[in-house]
Amino acid sequence: MACPHVEYRETDGEQSFDTARAYCAVAERFVQPMRADICTERYGLDPAADCEIYRERAGLDWDEPGDGDAVRRADTREQSETESTETSESAGGAESTGGSE
Amino acid sequence: MTYDDYLDGKPVIVTAALTGGIQGKEAHPELPETPAEIAAAAAACEEAGASVVHLHARRANGERAFSTERFQAVTDAVRAATDDVIVQHSTGGTAAPDALRAEPLRTDPPPEMASLDMGPLNRYDRLTSENTRDTVAGLHAEMRERGIVPELEVFNNGHLNEALATLDAFEDPPYLNLIFGPGTLSPPTPQTLLSMVAQLPQRAEFTVLGFGRHQLPLTTLSVILGGHVRVGLEDNLYYTAGEYASNEQLVARAVRIAEELGRPVADPSETRELLGL
Hints:
The complex is a heterodimer.
Chain A: E1 6-11, E2 16-24, E3 29-30, H1 33-39, H2 47-50, H3 52-58, H4 69-81, H5 85-99
Antiparallel strand pairs in A: 1-2, 2-3
Helix pairs in contact in A: 4-5
Chain B: H1 3-7, E1 14-17, H2 35-48, E2 52-55, E3 57-58, E4 64-65, H3 68-81, E5 86-89, H4 98-101, E6 113-117, E7 121-123, E8 127-129, H5 133-146, E9 149-154, H6 157-165, E10 175-180, H7 190-198, E11 205-210, H8 215-224, E12 228-231, E13 238-240, E14 243-244, H9 247-260, H10 268-275
Parallel strand pairs in B: 1-2, 1-12, 2-5, 5-6, 6-9, 9-10, 10-11, 11-12
Antiparallel strand pairs in B: 3-4, 7-8, 13-14
């Protein structure tokens, strides 16, 4: 699996490379090698959790990137945990995936 | 590692950080990525006066790689292209599994030196390089087993706390890389550098790494404070504002400044003696 917005290409009209590189169709630029690890979901990274560009496009951020939406989502989850054990386990699993990154 | 060392003309160790793993050719068209490109840069930097080269490995498309196989290809190419330069492998790896972090230590031969990140730091808006104490201790243990001398990567003052608290675990002289830049790094000011150097014990040696435009002033200050210097495209892409640098240019400038200030540049054998390699 990979981010739906990543393309591997050799040129964007301004820059050209011998080997195809990760290009973000949302940001409209070649991405840094470290960010490409998110695009490719390498090492368990997940664009929906780890990429602010993906999240902004998907409307997943509550406000602006860096405004702590993950913390506020955690508050919501804690509230849910008091309401449903099943929900708690589900949320815990999702958090474990995110927490290992 | 004091101002007296400056006055006494103690040799300066110049490390060239040739490639890194965060940025690539998308940021600088001549940034070396392949083993052949990294080896050519290493040879040019050795010729210019660097005695240590700090290496990362990459995939064919420039993306990060941590495998022993990839590091072997880089280190083999560098050793073939250089005379006597000291090879230092990175063990850094934001978001990479801990199991991969020791892979760069397992080349044959092992590197003479390796980086050892002393604690957590943030990347982008949502990534953290965790570097727990357990991870740091595990990497250090493997370095000891393989006879690799660690360079303690001090990204901020908290990491300096960690380094000082564990300094007895390191043989003399412990070698600290004081790192200055944005985000969770130490604020890049002369005052911060002075404060950190004042906390170092006499038995330590230190080098300085400044990101971007802070590379030149802070490494110059390090020379005056009796420290050493790390330069290269991993940390800074530009020679002056808007003008791309090469690794060789950055090393040559550091050498010129050190010599102008009265400190000769250490050759690899002098560096081995200074750091107990």
